[in-house]
Amino acid sequence: MTTTAQYKSKLLARRAELVERSEEVESELDAHNSKDWEELAVERETDEVLEGLGNNAAAEIIRIDAALKRIEEGQFGFCVKCDDQISAERLELLPYTPFCRNCAT
């Protein structure tokens, strides 16, 4: 069984990974400055994909930060909606989840 400290470690590692990825996305977005119209079109398409990745990373960071706060408050592993315990299987798959299986659906 995974302990709260182990979940915290996993969450912090994932957060660091996402922050690094977000920084790479920002650098890539800033690097485009082509003058050719065709290249600009391709770059814009690429930028849209990168922006989507950046937005997804930012959303996951927010969920991770909320989970870390629940750990600090001693509420981690309990559903924020019904206060039931979240199953270990669910936490293994989604360690930042605030909901039990029943409330998530």
Automatic annotation (TrEMBL):
This chain's protein is named TraR/DksA family transcriptional regulator
Known PANTHER family for this protein? GENERAL STRESS PROTEIN 16O, RNA POLYMERASE-BINDING TRANSCRIPTION FACTOR DKSA-RELATED
Q: Which PROSITE patterns match?
A: ZF_DKSA_2
Organism annotation: Litoreibacter halocynthiae
Sorted alphabetically, which InterPro entries does this protein's record hold? DksA-like_N, DnaK_N, Znf_DskA_TraR
Zinc finger annotations (dksA C4-type) as residue ranges: 79-103
Question: What are the TM regions of this chain, as residue ranges?
Answer: none
Q: Which GO terms describe its molecular function?
A: zinc ion binding
Keywords, ordered alphabetically: Coiled coil, Metal-binding, Zinc, Zinc-finger
Give the taxonomic lineage as stored in the record.
Bacteria, Pseudomonadati, Pseudomonadota, Alphaproteobacteria, Rhodobacterales
